[in-house]
Amino acid sequence: MRLSELGEFELLEELERRGLVAGLDAEGAVLADGRVVTQDTLVEGTHFRREWTSWRDLGYKAAAVNLSDLAAMGAAPEALLVALSAPSDEEADHVFELYEGLNETGVSVLGGDTTRAVSVSVTVTAVGRSERVPGRAGARPGDVLVVTGPLGGAAAGLHALRDGLDGFDDLVGLHRRPPLRLAEGKELARVAHAMVDISDGIGADAARIAERSGCLLRLAVDDLPIAAGVERVADLPFWTMGEDYELLAALAPEDGAESRFTVVGECREGAGVEPADLGGWQAF
């Protein structure tokens, strides 16, 4: 069976079933003494195109997508390790700009690797420390779901770039430079029963909580906060498409009522996500 037929979610499940990976109940590895580690890769042609991504923005985003996983684990970041693959005839100044973008997040780069390749890829490992990691497995029927910010802006910005649409600089900026929700993550981690970042789309990432927690997540679609201006880009469900790097958390009702975040659904007895088939990013 090919990866395109199996799918990312099913691949990870099969690897876990075979005892080849573990620790999939959180957005990264949870180690001793509150240490947490996560890793993501941005690949040219898959995650970015150089004709509309500056090297500095690429560096910032490569760091930000990893810091989003740390935020989902309620962690304070401590360091980044960076592995860069690039053609040998690439301009050195471009690499300097990439690392300037990485450092713009305020988290130090403390090592990594470089290698020659036919195209550019940036792999970042982010290390942090958390007092409490909610994980994906603790949601329970009766919980409410909250989200930390508006959805759909980054996907709409990417659509504007692909179609050459002008006048959507704010949305394009959300695609190039995701928000850092580290403070929000630490705040929610104190009380959240489960928490994920929704980089793959709210439906796809809600399914991770549903599967690990053994409950149904019902999204109140009409209550979702939507980024301003996306309706002017196209009549598409950008809020389902991912790239938002906001946090979705399951809280006890009283904690949801006291939080400053938008309630967007609830957990019930059952399985899966409603509405079903919302789509989202598929790695393969």
Identify the overall geometry: globular
| Helical proportion, percent range | 25-40%
Q: What are the segments in which pLDDT stays under 50 over at least 5 consecutive residues? A: none
Which sequence of SSEs, written as H and E, runs from N to C?
A: HHEEHEHEEEHHHEHEEHEE
Counted beta strands: 11
Strand percentage lies at: 15-25%
Tell me the Rg in angstroms: 19 Å
Structural class per helix/strand content?
alpha+beta
Q: Order the strands across the largest sheet as they lie in space.
A: 7-9-6-10-8-11
How many DSSP helices?
9
Main sheet makeup: 6 strands, mixed
How far apart lie the N and C ends?
13 Å
Write the layout of secondary structure elements.
Layout: H1 3-6, H2 8-17, E1 29-30, E2 35-43, H3 55-72, E3 75-86, H4 92-104, E4 109-116, E5 121-130, E6 144-147, H5 153-163, H6 169-176, H7 182-189, E7 194-197, H8 202-213, E8 216-219, E9 247-251, H9 253-258, E10 262-268, E11 272-274
Parallel strand pairs: 3-4, 8-11
Antiparallel strand pairs: 1-2, 2-5, 3-5, 6-9, 6-10, 7-9, 8-10
